């Protein structure tokens, strides 16, 4: 599975005819998908009811999260 960090307005292409674009709307994000009508597109909840959770998503949840590296601030007088 490919995981990307995208900013609002950024997009990715899949093959020659699928474009996925991300938009931030307030505190949430919207995803716009442009694909041929022959390509089925469904929300995860609906897909899981019909066909179960995709294997790639199951693998992602089984992996342990990577510890985040924090930066220490130096003590400075304001």
Summary keywords:
three-stranded antiparallel beta sheet; 2 helices; 78 residues; alpha+beta
What this model shows, in words?
The structure is a single chain. With 78 residues, this protein is of the alpha+beta class. It is 21% helix and 24% strand. The longest helix is centred in the middle third of the chain and has 8 residues, at 44-51. The model is unreliable at 74-78 (pLDDT under 50).
Structural Rg: 18 Å
Q: What's the number of helices? A: 2
Order of helices and strands: EEEHH
Could you name the ranges where pLDDT drops below 50 across 5 or more consecutive residues? 74-78
Structural class by SSE content: alpha+beta
How much beta, percentage-wise? 15-25%
Mean pLDDT figure: 81
Measure the end-to-end span.
46 Å
Number of DSSP-assigned strands: 3
Shape: globular
Biggest sheet features: 3 strands, antiparallel
The spatial strand order of the largest sheet comes to: 1-2-3
Helix-residue proportion: 10-25%
Question: What is the secondary structure topology, with strand pairs?
Answer:
Elements: E1 11-14, E2 18-25, E3 28-34, H1 44-51, H2 55-62
Antiparallel strand pairs: 1-2, 2-3
In short:
The chain is an alpha+beta fold and 78 residues long. Helices cover 21% and strands 24% of the residues. The chain starts with 10 loop residues before the first strand and ends in a 16-residue tail after the last helix.
């Amino acid at each position: 599975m490919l995981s990307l960090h995208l900013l609002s307005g950024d997009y990715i292409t899949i093959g020659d005819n699928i474009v996925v674009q991300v938009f931030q709307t307030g505190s949430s994000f919207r995803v716009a998908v442009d694909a041929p009508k022959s390509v089925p597109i469904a929300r995860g909840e609906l897909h899981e009811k019909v066909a179960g959770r995709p294997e790639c998503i199951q693998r992602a949840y089984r992996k342990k999260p990577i510890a985040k590296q924090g930066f220490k601030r130096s003590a400075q007088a304001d």
